[in-house]
Specification:
- This protein is α+β, with helices and mostly antiparallel strands and about 450 residues long.
- The chain has 13 helices and ten strands.
Length: about 450
């Protein structure tokens, strides 16, 4: 605020010098140049002191009001030597009133208004009239009135416009700060929830794994005895064959249970990851290898329907690998859930300036516009009850914001959904060496 006021005061100094020279050289007025020069010098000197003070110390809150009162007094002194209230530039008082209304509180505002009223009233009684070698022409008086009106209008519009833009910028910054604080609170709640779930589920998962292993081991002797007896006999009894089949089936089921338990443990392990730690840790990532890891995390039938294109085919970048992989995995699983059992899902990866752009597209039913505005809010989901918790897209957006990237989602009913995640590329590796690993080519690669 004070910086804008200092710039406005420099304009006032230039305007006062210009008006004084025009009055002497064009209108041939006889002016007391000594007092006028002293007033202009006082304005310039106080502005220099104000500019230097802003660089050295933090200004107190009352300084803006004090500067406005000083300017009212200096303007009154200048008007005293240049015709008093008859001077058309007396309307510049309105600029000080407008600034007080915009930036000061009620107390300071009414103080400035009272000072302006008192000074302007005094100028009706005490002032030095203008004198010239010849009568002042009518056009000069009208030109002065017009110039004063235009100058006051321009100053008020410029100052108020600047202040309003500053206030809007401050409001946006405050809104962003509140949003970041809310996201941090939500993230803390989600982290606590995930840690609690992981702790509570580890024990039953461990028990299931032990029982499944014991079941698998108990089926091994049964299958071995059945095979030995079958080898000693010429013909295999039907009951024995049925027992052998049952033993193998139970053993396979036990192994499947153990594999799924291991998968659940891996998921819980990823849930316990610290998002901040994942984002701050960056390493060289090959996007082709990233696509391979994504396929491994998908089901076999989903991996077969995934179409990946990487441009250029050898693209590597400095990215947070775990956070990027988890964000893309959320987008891909959402795309497969929205698509039919035979529909394909596309993942495009390409470099855009200083960022890597990931685009996930599907041909599902799309999302209605009234629901699209809420997508990404915690615990809001478009899936059927029991199919999702509504946290995936929230975490994707959080990862993008924490990395300095962006996330957008477009969808039309009947045409599918397109998700775009842009992650900024680090300019150097963790060791401090420049990152020159991104090579430009034009040929796409199917991964």
């Amino acid at each position: 605020m004070l910086a804008a006021l200092t710039r406005l005061r420099w304009l006032a100094v230039i305007g006062q010098l210009t008006a004084t020279l025009a009055a002497i050289l064009v209108l041939h007025l006889r002016l007391p140049l000594g007092p006028i020069a002293a007033i202009i010098f006082a304005t310039a000197a106080s502005n220099v002191a104000l500019t230097l003070g802003l660089k050295l110390v933090r200004p107190p809150g009352w300084l803006v009001g004090a500067v406005l009162l000083l300017d009212v007094c200096l303007l009154s002194a200048l008007l005293y030597f240049t015709g008093g209230s008859q001077n058309p530039f007396a309307s510049l008082y309105l600029v000080h009133v407008a600034m007080a209304v915009i930036v000061l509180g009620a107390g300071w505002t009414w103080t400035v208004v009272a000072t302006v009223a008192a000074c302007y009233g005094v100028l009706f009684l005490w002032y030095q009239p203008l004198s010239s070698a010849q009568p002042l022409p009518l056009w000069a008086a009208r030109a002065g009135d017009w110039t004063a009106l235009v100058l006051v209008s321009v100053l008020i519009a410029t100052f108020i416009g600047r202040v309003i833009r500053s206030l809007r910028q401050r409001e946006r910054e405050l809104a962003e700060a509140h949003e970041r604080a809310a996201n941090n609170e939500q993230l803390a709640a989600l982290t606590t929830l995930a840690a609690g779930a992981a702790h509570e589920l580890n024990t039953p998962l461990g028990t299931i794994a032990i029982v499944a292993r014991e079941l698998e081991l108990s089926c091994e002797p049964m299958a071995a005895r059945t095979a030995a007896v079958a080898g000693d006999t010429a013909g295999r009894p039907a009951g024995m064959a049925s027992a052998d089949t049952l033993a193998r089936s139970v053993r396979d089921d036990a192994r499947l249970i153990r594999r799924e338990v291991d998968r659940c443990r891996a998921i819980l392990g990823r849930m316990r990851l610290d998002v901040d730690e994942d984002i701050t840790h960056r390493s060289q990532v090959s996007l082709a290898q990233l696509a391979s890891r994504l396929r491994q995390d998908l089901r076999d039938e989903e991996a077969a329907r995934l179409q990946v294109r990487c441009v250029p085919p050898t693209l590597t970048a400095m990215l947070p690998p775990r956070a990027t992989e988890q964000a893309l995995l959320v987008l891909l699983r959402n795309a497969f859930d929205a698509s039919g059992s035979e529909s394909q899902v596309w993942l495009d990866m390409a470099q855009r300036d200083d960022a890597v752009r990931f685009e996930v597209r599907d041909r599902g039913p799309g999302i209605p516009q009234e629901m699209l505005r809420r997508v990404g809010e915690p615990f809001f989901t478009t899936k059927q009850p029991g199919k999702g918790m509504g946290l995936g897209l929230f975490l994707v957006r959080l990862v993008a914001e924490r990395c300095g990237g962006s996330f957008s989602l477009e969808s039309r009913p009947g045409e599918g959904t397109r998700c775009v995640l842009e992650m900024p590329v680090a300019t150097s590796s963790p060791s401090g060496e420049p990152n020159n690993s991104i090579h430009e080519t034009n040929a796409p690669r199917q991964v």
